[in-house]
Specification:
membrane; ion channel; mainly alpha; 67% helix; 5 helices; transport; cell membrane
């Protein structure tokens, strides 16, 4: 509903090795200039404001395209993986319960399974893999 059938055909027939997000902006610029020449936009300042806002939006789309174009470097993935595993190793040790009233020699670690820490690890490790 945003394009006529003729515009859709023009859009689909346009050959481009990259995304074609910029085509509607070109169309908009041409239509705005045509509207200024026909007197539908009364002042050049209004046309300039309209074109500035359109260019700002186009630059945001271009920035988004740039983020999609460049992948995350492998070193970031490795650092995050190391941080997640180190955090949960520290959690396994740090979240142990020591009952000082029991009189443990040297306060050794209790041996029990920290269920919530393991669930947290499975969720974070799952999200990390995604």
């Amino acid at each position: 509903g945003f394009m006529t059938r003729y515009e859709r055909k023009l859009f689909d027939d346009l050959k481009s090795p990259h995304l074609k997000y910029w085509v509607p902006f070109v169309w908009f610029g041409n239509l705005a200039s045509k509207a200024r020449n026909e007197g539908r936009i009364r002042d050049s300042v209004d046309l300039q404001t309209l074109m500035n806002e359109m260019n700002k939006y186009r630059s945001w789309c271009s920035l988004l395209f740039g983020y999609d174009w460049v992948g995350i470097p492998l070193v970031y993935t490795q650092v995050v993986t190391l941080a997640v595993y180190t955090f949960f190793f520290a959690c396994l040790i740090g979240r142990q319960f020591l009952d000082t009233d029991q009189g443990y020699q040297g306060h050794d670690l209790d041996i029990y399974i920290p269920i919530f820490t393991l669930l947290q690890f499975f969720f974070y490790a799952g999200w990390l893999k995604v």
